[in-house]
Design a protein that fits this description.
The structure holds 2 protein chains of 2 kinds. By secondary structure, chain A is of the alpha/beta class. Chain A contains 19 helices and 16 strands. Chain A is 44% helix and 16% strand. Chain A is elongated. In chain B, helix 6 packs across helix 7. Chain B is mainly α. Chain B starts with a helix and ends with a helix. Classes of the chains: A alpha/beta, B mainly alpha. At the A-B interface, strand 2, helix 7, helix 10, helix 11 and helix 15 of A face helix 2, helix 9 and helix 10 of B.
Chain lengths: 448, 280
Amino acid sequence: MSLQNPFNPDSRLGCSCGQHASETEHDAAVADEAAFQRRLLESTVMRALFPHDATRRKFLSAVGAGTALAAVSSLFPFEALAAMAQEKGPLEKKDLKVGFLPITCATPIIFAGAADFYAKEGLNVSLQKTAGWAIVRDKVLAREFDASHMLSPMPLAISMGVGSSAEPMVMPVMENTNGNAITLAMKHKDNRDPKNWNGMKFAIPFDYSMHNFLLRYYLAANGIDPDKDVQLRVMAPPDMVANLRSGNIDGFIVAEPFNQRAVFEKVGFIHTLTSEIWDNHPCCAFAASESFVKENPNTFAALVRSIMRATVFADKPENRKGVAEMISPANYLNQPPIVVEQVLTGRFADGLGKVRNVPDRIGFDPFPWHSMAVWMLTQMKRWGYIKGDVNYSDIAERVFLATDAQKRMAELGVEAPKSTYAKHVILGKPFDHSQPDAYLNSFAIRRA
Amino acid sequence: MNRMNLRAGVLSLMLLGLFLAVWYLATVPSVTDQTMSAADAEYAALMGQGSDKHEGFPPPATVAATFVHYLSDPFYDNGPNDQGIGIQLAYSLVRVGIGFLLATLVALPLGFVIGMSPLMTRALNPFIQILKPISPLAWMPLALYTLKDSDVSGVFVIFICSIWPMLINTSFGVASVRRDWINVARTLEVGPLRKAFQVILPAAAPTILTGMRISMGIAWIVIVAAEMLVGGTGIGYFVWNEWNNLALPNVIFAITMIGLVGMLLDLAFGALQKSVTYQD
């Protein structure tokens, strides 16, 4: 996330919450808000004490307003109540089921549970390990999960009814950036040029995944048509490692720790980290159905706050080792800690005898850029997952709650980007979110 | 007969010993050169050398240690995603039990009706023949979509796979009760309910229980696959979770437990079958 340079004479720092132009304006707004909350509270208490207005007026005229306030205040802790009312509303639902897949992308969701961040918000979250992305989709649609870890293109696809029945979804926070790799079988250690990959077989975890889009993008940029020249197969991550061992596939693109696990099992090597295709590309997300958010706004806010807190914590390099240790056990990732640690710290064995040092191998930046959603939509259209005219920014803004994220990041004292759109560069090619169709048409290999 | 049992037992043990010996010999680790530079040492550490990591198929001793580890505390509960093998088996058994019971409640009366009426046999036969060969797991996506609950879907899949052997065997058993017995009942002017419960049911009971035994066998096979697909709880989930961890010793342990429980279920139905069979 971009931090404004406070020493730049041209930069405006704004207020501490990010919603106002200056600190003075912020204070005024906060004071107004506080006064309003206080009045609301006082009226409620007085109404409860004196159900009949006539009695209240008689009481006030008899003892005087000042004495009345003192008397009532001694019974009701107005100050404490006012502070609570301002901070957060009552939780509509406390017992929640949140789904996740045991991969490092789920780090914020898992860590928020392991570090009791949910409990601090008064939530009782049960984290449900789930067997696959299709099951995640079905359990969210069936309302078995209140919210869930998802691949970031999934809420877009589900909202549009692509690959499932249509259900409006919202995505308040991105879970991770980067954190994936293309792994090849050992027999290809001298076959590193993708231009020669004609006829190879690759595994992907799900159709509506950044993995699928990034691999397709990477192949197509090297002149390989992902639908005609190679075979892409949807597979569960452990099956990928086993199939790579048996020589059934030549490589795969998947979330960690399975690339590192393939190295650990000596069946493959890391050909390229996906950060080398698109640095800080989005990967997984935390999403819920719009109806859940409408019915439980305060619960949802509390949930997002806890995850955002975990995301910010997990992003700090000094915390990475501890986080890896916390999420490795059977209850969560169920992986050898050494494997998870290599992913999170970025100091890892590449499978070819070298130790590499890439501190941003995985990042945890919660901001759900609208421009990233637009990019995903261009790729969904590019490969024929969606057809016809697409109102890119409309869908992006309805599903990716970037404006909301700005507010919540400010609450946690994290500088949020001022804009919700940014320019991205993928494999050296700039992406302009305002010209999605022109971008789409600039590709030689495409279905649309 | 006793001598035979003894000899069979000895032979079984010898086969087991042979199997373990072959397994052990096939998985003896090869000795590798341990001299290396500091950079190599870091690489080796990242590759998991020096820890208790095993490469390739696990040797018998590792698997034995896994057995001891899980069986020493079968009912621990570390939250929703890490529970003891006893709890996981209980989840699976409950799902199988409910689905199987529901299937029994439908299949036995329906089987009776079909078996007693040649017309119904012919009318329902095409449906049964088409529905019977459908793999129970093929129902899973449909069940998840319509029932909107993974637990209920699991039970439904057990129900739908258990029903056919019971239905077919019940109707067959009922239809092939000896005509003499039915005729005797008719001569004695026995009422239809009494005829069903005191003549047909005892005569068809061994066949009905054979159907139930087959159903239970299928149900136990299916629940593991269903839980692997849906995840969450149960012995199938346990296998999936350990496969996700690529932990073969744990997978082997789970497979053995599935086999043992399946055998116990089969033995129970075998005993039940024996108790209703009589020699005439």
